[in-house]
Every structure is written in C-alpha cells, then in structure tokens.
Design brief:
Layout (H helix, E strand, L loop, with lengths): L2 H18 L14 E6 L2 E6 L14 H15 L7 E5 L5 H15 L4 E5 L8 H8 L5 E6 L10 H10 L9 E7 L7 H10 L4 H12 L3 E5 L4 H14 L6 H15 L4 H15 L6
Parallel strand pairs: 1-4, 3-6, 3-7, 4-5, 5-6
Antiparallel strand pairs: 1-2
Helix pairs in contact: 2-3, 6-7, 8-9, 8-10
C-alpha cells in the first residue's frame, strides 16, 4: 500500500479511537463551590452542589470538642495559625457530622472563604497531586478524611506523615487536614507488631505508632453516650423539627428504640428520629 493510500486509513483509525476514548473530566474550579470531593484517577476536584450535614446546634453531648474544633477552624479561616485535627473515639458519636457542621457554621460567618475537600483513605497516595492543585489558590481549604486507619501492608500512612508535617515542599499555608477515626493511634496492632519484629530497635515500632498521630496538633476524643446525652440528642431533634409527640412518649419510644439496637449514640438517636418522623407523617427539613 502506498503512502498516499495509507494516510486516509490511519486518519480514520485515529478518528475512531478518539470517539471510543472517554473525554477527560475537567477539574472543578477551586473557587466555585463550598465543598468538593477529590477523585484520584484521573486527579481532579469534583464540586458538590449541596452538602449533606446537620446544623451545629443539633449536635448534643459534644460541647467541649465542638468549641475546640470551631475555634481552630475560625482561626484557620481568618488566616491565622491552626492545627491539623484528629477526631477519634466511639462509633456513631458525630465525629464526621461535627466536621461538616463546623465547616457550615464558619462558612456562614465568612462566605466563600473556606472550602471543604473530602477524600477517601484509599486516595491518600494522591495527596501530593491534590496539594499541587490547591497551592497558591486565594482560598482556605479544609481537607477531610473520614474513618482514617491503616491495616496490613498499607504504606500510605508514610505519605500522610510527610504531608502533615514534612516533605520538601511542606503543607501549603492555605490547607488544613481533619480526620476521623475509631482509633486514637491510627496504625493497627498487627502493623505495630510487624514493625517491632523487623526493627533493629523494637522501640522504634512504638515510636512509629505514635508519630503519625502526633502530627495532628489537636486530638479530640468522643466517648460512649450516656442516657442523659441520648435524651438530650432526641429532644433536641424533636424540638428542631417540631415533631408532634409528648415528652413522655418521646422518651419511652427512644428507650425502646435504644434497647432494640443494643446501644446509644448520636447515630442511633438520628435513626430513631427518622423513624419517628416517618410514623408521624412529618418530614425532616431544615
């Protein structure tokens, strides 16, 4: 086949491949949304039009940690120094809800100044890519990773350590990192034991365990919910949503719901309120 005959054939093949290949999804403008989800492959910001969160006033039984996280976030939004924060402790006690609620409260105070960027634990290896996108943008970004922990042979925690407190470039001044975890120390016992068995100095394994959590300047503990806090959560939701039920009936049904679940927590309280509102024929709208 001659060159003159081959050229049109190659052009048609190239056109066909262009049609088959998916078009790259552009990254969202980092100034356009109040919240984003970070996608690692291909690396891009995905804007969130409506954030799923509850008002800060609805979070009961976490007054101390609420005030600390709110003050830290206000400092950061104002351009002042602030700490990376680790929210750790009992399941269902509102750790991730508090992060989103605090962001919402500060965003009302300084509109457009602070954006929330959520990334999954599986995408932590792409943190350097995300920081390159955000570095130099005239805006503050709160990076949020929910349910952070490391198991098995997962080595991405070493990348996280460098981002939080080291590396040649360092963390951009306009970026802060918040994480939630059920563990105070983010590495599993198996990982620590493995590092202890292979370390020249076994004590280095313990230091490795503590050093990751130490990169978070603010540690906020969430503890198991007692009966009084559980009732405070239930009653706070009922008042906020104007649920048509007497206080006595509300407590009685809340106790029955708690017994069927075998636990008390903020999550259990919210699930009860959702069920109650549905049975009352009312909607939960803020």
């Amino acid at each position: 086949m001659t060159d003159s005959a081959l050229a049109p054939l190659l052009a048609r093949i190239a056109d066909s491949l262009d049609r088959l290949a998916p078009q790259p999804v552009p990254s969202a403008d980092p100034r356009a949304f109040d919240a984003y989800v970070w996608q690692a492959s291909p690396p891009r910001l995905q804007g969130v039009a409506e954030i799923s969160r509850v008002p800060l006033a609805l979070l009961q039984g976490v007054d101390r940690v609420r005030d600390l996280l709110l003050a830290n976030t206000r400092q950061f939004a104002a351009g002042l120094s602030a700490n990376n924060a680790l929210l750790w402790g009992a399941r269902g006690m509102g750790k991730s809800s508090l992060v989103k609620a605090v962001h919402g409260a500060v965003s009302v105070e300084v509109p457009g100044r602070l954006a929330l960027v959520e990334l999954s634990r599986e995408d932590l290896h792409s943190l350097p890519d995300l920081l390159r996108v955000l570095r130099g943008v005239d805006r503050r970004f709160l990076l949020f990773c929910d349910d952070l922990s490391f198991d098995g042979q997962d080595a991405s925690y070493k990348s996280l350590k460098a981002v939080l407190d080291g590396g040649v470039e360092g963390r951009p001044r306009n970026v802060l990192f918040y994480a939630t975890s059920n563990r105070r120390h983010l590495l599993s016992r198996d990982m620590i034991e493995n590092e202890r068995s292979t370390a020249i100095n076994p004590g280095e394994a313990v230091e490795e365990k503590v050093s990751l959590s130490d990169r978070f300047g603010l540690w906020l503990g969430f503890h198991a919910c007692d009966q009084n806090n559980y009732f405070a959560m239930i009653e706070g939701y009922a008042r906020f949503f104007n649920l048509d039920i007497s206080p006595e009936a509300l407590r009685a049904e809340a106790i029955e719901w708690q017994m069927t679940r075998g636990s008390r927590s903020g999550r259990v309280a919210w699930q009860f309120i959702q069920d109650l509102a549905g049975r009352l024929g009312q909607t939960l709208s803020s």
